[in-house]
Amino acid sequence: MEFNCVHFLQNKTILVTGATGFLAKVFVEKILRVQPNVNKLYLVVRASDTDAATKRLRTEAFEKDLFKVLRESLGDENFNTLLSEKVVPVAGDIAMDHLGMKDSKLRERMQKEIDIVVNVAATTNFDERYDVGLGINTFGALNVLNFAKKCVKAQLLLHVSTAYVCGEKPGLLPEKPFVMEEIRNENDFQLDIHRERELMKQRLKELNEQDCSEEDITRAMKELGMERAKLHGWPNTYVFTKSMGEMLLGNYKENLPLVIIRPTMITSTLSEPFPGWIEGLRTVDSVIIAYGKGVLKCFLVDVNSVCDMIPADMVANAMITAAATHAGGSKVHMVYQVGSSRQNPITYGEIREIFRNSSLITVSKMKLIPTMALFSLYMTIRYKLPLQLLKLVDIIYPSRKGDNYKNKNRKIGMVMRLVNLYEPYVLFKGIFDDRNTKNLCANQKGEDNQNSENLKFDFDPKIIKWRDYLINVHIPGLIIHVLKK
């Protein structure tokens, strides 16, 4: 199939949810930079009104370093003109009907104009409150679908999920949609998404009737999410609620073309708009930073497990290419797993060796422990037993300043919580099949590889040179854009 991504974007009207999020901003910046003749970008952000939405987009998106290449190439005046002509801030919330839009005239105008709907909005906290996770990741996705169905010109819904909806399965993980009826846990108990919501509402009602504090309600809702996720075979609330979101989309899409993008761990940009842009500590980065600072003395990691990372600009390129390929197609329900473990794998052990041989960061000696049982034993011997002695000292000498036992016990509790949340990823034994993504990339480049326009949208993981990327791009990006040094 021949197509041109830049030409596809021309005169298109695109709705993007979660527009202040990391990936959504990379996606929006790319569109504005390569195709200023896009018709309109309706950007949905959580805000009280249009003015608040405009302010959020300005401070959390357009004033960020990410947009400096576009700003410098156009000049301030033309950049601001481009935004005012092409970007429409929308105050909304995908957890609500009509995406939480109060302005009915704006809603009707959008439903007449929109060609492509891109849902990037999500809560990515592993142990999110169950009510929040269901509201955004599961039924929020359904709300976006219902809105897209009302858009008379809609050619496609592109939904960003996560590759880790697979749970903790080992081996080669297929690039295919979920079938809701097939989802059963080990006790042959079938998942009923609507029942999950009712169960959550009932628990929330009980907590409110008991006059619980907001802190207690949050704790109970987080515990319920993790409990329900593990009951059905998922490691945490995040991937469980994202999985259910995919299931609802597949079940209720009807004739609307649907593309699901499942990225692995998204990292800093490889090349566009410049190398190394990142925002916040992504999944693996908090461990890398703590390791580099020398504050992490031990962690749960299997050195033979593959760390499946993919730069953010490659994910954005895959999103645009998939939209250009499938917009207006019939009976489309495609899944693209966008990662590196199949074609260009790197293990945690290899990452450690790269850092060991680099002078960029001061690397501490860190003990990497390959199983949860061994890690718990290590923590007991190394920290918990001495902690009991410290507790005894605090009892014998209560007048001592500070409460060393409680303080250190709290820190150990935080470490164990972090390790429990990260366990499914640092011990992960799966490889993500990406044959759909590989074919998409090959078609996008074209057999003769001569279309320079389409080469701007490369997302082939084989081009990543991991040592160069980590040492010269990713770590400097973390230092500049996250640690602000």
TrEMBL record:
GO molecular function terms attached to this record: alcohol-forming long-chain fatty acyl-CoA reductase activity; alcohol-forming very long-chain fatty acyl-CoA reductase activity
Domain Fatty acyl-CoA reductase C-terminal: 383-484
Superkingdom, natural source: Eukaryota
Record-annotated Thioester reductase (TE) domain positions: 16-319
Keyword Lipid metabolism part of the UniProt annotation: yes
Keywords: Lipid biosynthesis, Lipid metabolism, NADP, Oxidoreductase
Pfam families in the record: NAD_binding_4, Sterile
GO biological process: long-chain fatty-acyl-CoA metabolic process; suberin biosynthetic process
InterPro entries: FAR (IPR026055), FAR_C (IPR033640), FAR_NAD-bd (IPR013120), NAD(P)-bd_dom_sf (IPR036291)
EC number(s) reported in the record: 1.2.1.84
Reactions that this protein is recorded to catalyse: a long-chain fatty acyl-CoA + 2 NADPH + 2 H(+) = a long-chain primary fatty alcohol + 2 NADP(+) + CoA
Family from the record: Belongs to the fatty acyl-CoA reductase family.
Function of the molecule: Catalyzes the reduction of fatty acyl-CoA to fatty alcohols.
Name the record gives this protein: Fatty acyl-CoA reductase
Organism field: Arabidopsis lyrata subsp. lyrata (Lyre-leaved rock-cress)
